[in-house]
Amino acid sequence: MVNKKKIFPIGIGTWKINYQDSKDIEALFHSYKLGQNYLSLYMLYEDGKIVKSLKSFIEKCGRENLFISVNIEPTINEKSDIEKQLNEYLNILNLDYVDNLQLHLPKFTKLTLLDTYFEMKRLQEAGKTRYLGISNCSLEQLKEINTNVKLDFFEGVYNLECKINESIGILDYCKKNGIKFVAYQPLRRNRTQLKNYDLLVELSQKYNKTQNQIILNWIMKEKKINVLIKSTNCDRIDENIKSLDFEMEENDYKRLNDFKNEEFENIKIDWDNVGDGISIDQLPNQF
């Protein structure tokens, strides 16, 4: 059984995996063989077809060798919808429990966040999930939930250009309260590298690493954040893993810490789902 402390720093994302292509599934096995044991699942992807396609992957790896995180997604109208969604994951994958259960976006529930998480806590106490997490919420929402229901995971956007979860205090709160931060889109699906920022070009040449390796190394080693990456290219998977194999000078980490992109800094986030700004999960998809 993989506990919270034994999760590999790079998690396996499943967004847009071609569930009909055996090569994509084989790439997941390649990730697993290199140590990646955190598997993030969303029923939203391809109407659950990707989740269904991963049953054999989980069985071959061994349930006890994987940390499986699942998301509660639209729409929760009543408490029973939460257990119904969780049971769907369990039934499809033939599991007795998941490792982490989290709400994908606060707007996905019509209940109050506290009522939603009190029900998720009940499912945790019933043994259907080992941990509870939250994704894409504001600092105030995070504090409210964690004060009443202990959280262990926060999944949110974090990369060189999108540091809002740090600037508003979420990253610091997670560190102080033992909540593991898992960053999605740490490379903005390769869009950051395509910008060819002078700093990344310089550091890439200095350390003889790719720009993506510089970014991942900084996030995992300097910021102490886990990352979630979807890749079905074995060479790219190897490249990602090797981002853990070097250290940069303290001043170079500081320069990455201080890097800002004004375009992203000026984007307004609609934390309260009132139509004023963009949803936080769409931030890394801009530009």
Question: What order do the helices and strands come in, and which of them pair?
Answer:
Blueprint: E1 10-12, H1 22-33, E2 38-41, H2 49-53, H3 55-61, E3 67-72, H4 79-93, E4 98-103, H5 113-125, E5 129-135, H6 139-148, E6 153-157, H7 164-167, H8 170-176, E7 180-184, H9 191-195, H10 198-207, H11 211-222, E8 226-229, H12 234-241, H13 250-258, H14 262-265
Parallel strand pairs: 1-8, 2-3, 3-4, 4-5, 5-6, 6-7, 7-8
Helix pairs in contact: 5-6, 10-11
Explain this structure.
With 287 residues, this protein is an alpha/beta fold. The chain has one domain: NADP-dependent oxidoreductase domain (TIM Barrel, Alpha-Beta Barrel). It is 42% helix and 14% strand. The chain is built from 14 helices and eight strands. The protein has an eight-stranded parallel β-sheet with strand order 1-8-7-6-5-4-3-2. Helix 5 links the parallel strand 4 and strand 5. The chain is globular. The mean pLDDT is 96.
Could you give a short description of this structure?
With 287 residues, the chain is of the alpha/beta class.
CATH topology: TIM Barrel
Strand portion: 5-15%
> Average pLDDT, to the nearest integer?
96
Q: Please estimate the helix content.
A: 40-55%
Instruction: Give the terminus-to-terminus CA distance.
Output: 41 Å
Specify the CATH architecture.
Answer: Alpha-Beta Barrel
- Output the strand order for the largest sheet: 1-8-7-6-5-4-3-2
For the record, the CATH class is: Alpha Beta
